Amino acid sequence: MNPILNIAIKAARKAGAIINRSSLDLERNNVSSNLLNDYVAETSRLSEHVISEVLLNVYPDHDFIGKNDSFDLNKEFKWIVCGLDGLENFIHCFPFYSISISLMHYNNIVQSVVYDPVRNELFTASRGAGTFLNDRRVRVSGKNRFGKSLISIQDNRVANNSFDLLDKTIQNLSIRKINSCSLALAYVACGRLEAFLGSNLSIFDMAAGGLLSSESGGLVADYHGDQNWFSSGQMLAATPKIFAKIVNALQTQNLNDN
Fold first, then answer.
1. Any residues with CB less than 8 A from the CB of 14 and at least 6 apart, and which?
2. 205 is in an annotated binding site
3. Same domain for 201 and 110?
4. Are residues 88 and 11 in the same domain?
5. 227 vs 110, 210, 211, CA distance in Å?
6. Is 257 annotated as a binding residue?
7. Residues of the signal sequence (predicted)?
8. Which CATH number does the domain housing residue 22 bear?
9. DSSP notation for 56-79
10. Do residues 7 and 134 share a domain?
11. Do 192 and 105 belong together in one domain?
């Protein structure tokens, strides 16, 4: 395994221990309701802090970018980290949240880790070397029937939580809203989902899971099928056959609406 990836895995597991301890306090109602949001925000901050300590201790010349940090995509090596992806799920003790860590070399994601501390599931990928779940190589689903696909959606708009372009396209499909983009993309990578669609996403939502999906045989693009997902905040990750059908459906819907 790539030594850089090993360090990222170590960081993810240390952060996972923090999150698991905090989740026990929530489950036992040890946190008052008026302090709940602050407690969860602090858990996320501590998770990012321990990740930064592990990574920068080994790679002090790399940039570390957490969710509240500004960053320059032109820097050579930078770690893109979300210490707790799925805050609302965590608050409600709904066990679908994750830690995501990715290393970018200039504008290319080269290493990714998504860790689910609840199930102790570790998803990893190195560019050109495939995607793994707990040391077992995984591939995207082999299903090719659009109507039988299981799809996850994520829309981060506050004012309007609908997918204007997708309403008619996805209304007859089986939809799951996991509310942890990294985890949903990991599920695409290992074949549990056939596709993920998201809009108004940040680089922290997309970076780690994007590499997992592509290295497992999936296709990743924006809603037009272009490689502008970082800048547009739109992301479609899917098995190749389902990907083509969704892009075609989106384009047909767009033409009909115009």
1. 50, 51, 54
2. yes
3. no
4. yes
5. 16, 11, 13
6. no
7. none
8. 3.30.540.10
9. HHH-TTSEEE-TT----TTSSEEE
10. yes
11. no
Query: Which residue among 105, 138, 171 closes a domain?
Result: 138
Identify whether residues 53 and 128 lie together within a single domain: yes
Instruction: Specify the amino acid at residue 245.
Output: K
Cα(158)–Cα(131) distance, integer angstroms: 33
Looking at the predicted structure, is the pLDDT value of residue 30 above 80? no
193 and 209 share one domain? yes
Nearest to 13 by CA among 90, 114, 111: 114
Please tell me whether residues 74 and 132 are part of one structural domain.
Answer: yes
CA-to-CA dists, residue 8 to 14, 56, 157, 219, angstroms: 10, 11, 30, 24
Number of domains in the chain: 2
40: containing domain: 3-138
113-122 pLDDT per residue, tens:
999 999 999 9
Q: Report d(CA 231, CA 220) in Å as an integer.
A: 14
CB 85 within 8 A of CB 102: no
The pTM of the full predicted model, rounded to 2 decimals, is: 0.89
Query: What distances in angstroms separate CA 132 from CA 5, 10, 17, 122, 137, one per listed residue?
Result: 12, 16, 21, 8, 4
Residues 12 and 134 in one domain: yes
Predicted pLDDT of residue 193: 94
Q: Quote the CA–CA distance of 158 and 43 in Å, as a whole number.
A: 23
Q: What is the pLDDT of residues 203-256, one digit of tens each?
A: 999 999 999 999 999 999 988 888 888 888 889 999 998 888 888 777 765 545
